[in-house]
């Protein structure tokens, strides 16, 4: 039994359950309109942030040469990692995981052709690990940008756009920051390749029952 709400629960649940990582079903020829991307950023701005600081920024890259360079850095960072992990998963009989890594490898190959790269950022940098406050500060920083980034992806999905949450470019974060003029005191959280998706349907992923991951009144409950 639910309380009174002005939200369409079925539509909301469908959006939440079918916003998938899209790597292969991306339209590489159709441009993504600036106005649509700004609408999605506007929705992301409604996400909660630590201490209401709202230190988010979204760097959107549509310039072909900059996308090409980001893709080079991305591929340089991952090397043969995805190919190796796909082969290992296949050897273990885990076809689903093997397919995911294969798709990730494919995404790396076509990254420069994807019309928009979106990099969600947050003001601040992670302190040195010897700092006793490093853990809480790190949690607060990413707790402030990740809800906005996920809201952005949900907004994309509702408008017929696909994306995948990637972080491999962070192995070359400094070079990407230099390329895009991102200040030294700003942290990049992810890279979303964004394009209109092809096809019509996405299905919920298979997950274990919620009871298997829920603990009542303590870990043992």
From TrEMBL:
Gene3D superfamilies: NADH Oxidase
Gene Ontology terms, MF aspect: oxidoreductase activity
InterPro entries the record matches: Nitroreductase, Nitroreductase-like
Domain Nitroreductase residue range list: 18-195
Coiled-coil residue windows: none
Keyword Transport: no
Pfam families: Nitroreductase
Record's keyword terms, sorted: Oxidoreductase
Keyword Oxidoreductase set for record: yes
Similarity field: Belongs to the nitroreductase family.
Protein name: Nitroreductase
Taxonomic classification: Bacteria, Bacillati, Actinomycetota, Actinomycetes, Mycobacteriales
């Amino acid at each position: 039994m639910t309380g009174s709400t002005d939200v369409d629960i079925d539509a909301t649940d469908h959006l939440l359950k079918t916003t998938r990582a899209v790597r292969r079903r991306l339209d590489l020829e159709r441009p993504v309109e600036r106005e649509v991307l700004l609408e999605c950023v506007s929705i992301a701005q409604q996400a909660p942030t630590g201490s209401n600081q709202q230190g988010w920024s979204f760097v959107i890259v549509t310039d072909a040469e900059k996308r090409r360079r980001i893709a080079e850095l991305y591929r340089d960072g991952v090397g043969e990692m995805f190919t190796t992990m796909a082969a290992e998963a296949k050897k273990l009989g885990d076809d689903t995981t093997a397919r995911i890594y294969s798709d990730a490898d494919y995404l790396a190959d076509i990254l420069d052709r994807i019309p928009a790269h979106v990099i969600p950022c947050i003001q601040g940098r992670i302190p040195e690990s010897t700092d006793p406050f490093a853990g809480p500060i790190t949690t607060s920083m990413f707790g402030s940008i990740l809800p906005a980034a996920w809201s952005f992806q949900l907004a994309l999905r509702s408008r017929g756009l696909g994306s995948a949450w990637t972080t491999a470019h962070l192995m070359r974060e400094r070079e990407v920051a230099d390329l895009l003029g991102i200040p030294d005191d700003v942290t990049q959280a992810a890279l979303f390749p964004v394009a209109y998706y092809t096809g019509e349907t996405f299905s919920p992923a298979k997950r274990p029952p919620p009871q298997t991951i829920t603990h009542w009144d303590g870990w043992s409950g």
